[in-house]
Design goal:
The structure holds 2 protein chains of 2 kinds. Chain A is built from 5 helices and 5 strands; from the N terminus they run αβαββαββαα. By secondary structure, chain A is α+β, with helices and mostly antiparallel strands. Chain A has a 3-stranded antiparallel sheet with strand order 2-3-5. In chain A, strands 1-4 form a two-stranded antiparallel sheet. The radius of gyration of chain A is 25 Å and the shape is elongated. In chain A, 27% of the residues are buried. By secondary structure, chain B is of the alpha/beta class. Chain B has one domain: Rossmann fold, CATH 3.40.50.12280. Classes of the chains: A alpha+beta, B alpha/beta. The interface between A and B is large, with 54 and 61 residues. Strand 5 of chain A pairs parallel with strand 8 of chain B, so a sheet runs across the interface.
Chain lengths: 174, 178
């Protein structure tokens, strides 16, 4: 009886076959509608910063270097791949790729940095107040984030200097 | 080079301790999913142990929080050296979407040194296997930081004092390039 159960168990195991995926040797494609790392397209981006203002993780930073150049920096470290930026982008410059093999030993490898050209008014030479709120985001000084420390700052830099936000958390570790 | 170092320090099986310091258990489920026969991490010699004193590798999930930071630090110090730390999930890599809440300190690298990062919310089981295989030197790294420029200098700049009416048209007299 014991031998019979062993034979039966062997037959069950042989019938099941091999189920383990040969993953690191062979590539394993992601399923349909999988959202991976967002890819930013600099040629399509108009620099409205709608993605930066709607990111739940606050990890798309905007910095205005001068009147015409705006830097958009995607950190990628705390991105939850929710896809709100790609959903909101009016020019469809952000695509959610199916790339999940993003393991790295340096977290700065996930950053994407765009230098965008912002158009100005041809009469006065400045950015002008636009009729819609989305177009008002193109104005200079709306976002002035801390690119060195990868910090998202809602207010301007003077506000940041007055009320120091960094190093506000101190915890005792034994 | 890193593969040689890794094989020198960890020539045999990796014993894994998995530490959750306040995550949502999503990454826990994916890590346990890696140990099922479908993904079968034991073919790499990876075994889950219950105590950090037995472990070579620490899998950190969840952000470093005020209530668990000291315990996470103690668990890291209890591991025998050489030790290697993986940060799994976007909470452990960067603090998650609640990175600026009052009880969240931030990523776990503020408390303990982290060697490898596996972003994702949660990462796929294949992504975790890829991270371990990257640490073992079986696969190559696929991500690099990218920097894209939209426009090249010089940029035309317009001055309102150079506007001139010619007939019924506004004409710019000069166009300065910066």
């Amino acid at each position: 009886m014991s031998l019979l159960s062993k034979i039966k168990e062997t037959w069950i195991c042989l019938k099941a076959g091999k189920v383990t995926l040969p993953y690191p040797a062979k590539p394993q494609p992601a399923p349909e509608r999988f959202r991976g790392r967002p890819i930013f397209d600099a040629s399509k981006c108009i620099g409205c910063a709608g993605c930066a203002n709607n990111c739940p993780a606050r990890e798309i930073l905007v910095f205005d270097v001068c009147q015409e150049i705006r830097i958009l920096k995607y950190l990628g470290r705390r991105c939850t791949y929710c896809g709100r930026c790609a959903d909101l982008c009016p020019e469809k410059a952000i695509t959610m790729s199916k790339d999940y093999e993003t393991a790295t030993n340096n977290i700065a490898d996930l950053q994407q940095r765009l230098e965008l050209f912002m158009s100005t008014c041809q009469r006065c030479g400045r950015c002008f107040k636009e009729p819609t709120p989305l177009e008002q985001l193109k104005l200079k000084g709306y976002r002035f984030d801390d690119l060195e420390n990868d910090r998202w700052i809602f207010k301007s830099k003077s506000y940041f200097d007055q009320f120091k936000v960094t190093d506000d958390i101190h915890i005792e570790l034994d | 080079m890193f593969r040689k170092l890794f094989l020198k320090f960890f020539p045999r099986s990796l014993w894994v301790y998995h530490a959750n310091s306040g995550g949502c258990n999503g990454c826990d489920i994916e890590v346990l999913n890696v140990l099922t026969p479908y993904y079968d991490a034991e073919r790499f010699g990876i075994k889950l142990v219950a105590s950090p004193r037995h472990a070579d590798v620490m899998l950190c999930q969840g952000p470093a929080m005020r209530s668990t930071a000291a315990a996470l630090k103690r668990a890291y110090e209890a591991m025998p050296s050489p030790k290697i730390v993986f940060a799994i999930g976007s909470c452990a890599c960067g603090g998650g979407i609640w990175h600026d809440t009052y009880n969240v300190i931030g990523p776990v690298e503020k408390i303990i040194p982290v060697n490898f990062y596996i972003p994702g919310c949660p990462p796929r089981p294949e992504a975790i296997i890829y991270g371990v295989a990257l640490a073992m030197g079986l696969v190559d790294k696929k991500v690099l930081p990218s920097s894209l420029k939209q426009e090249e200098l010089p940029i035309p700049r317009y001055h309102p004092e150079d506007l001139e009416m010619q007939g019924d048209m506004l004409v710019y007299k000069k166009l300065e390039k910066i």
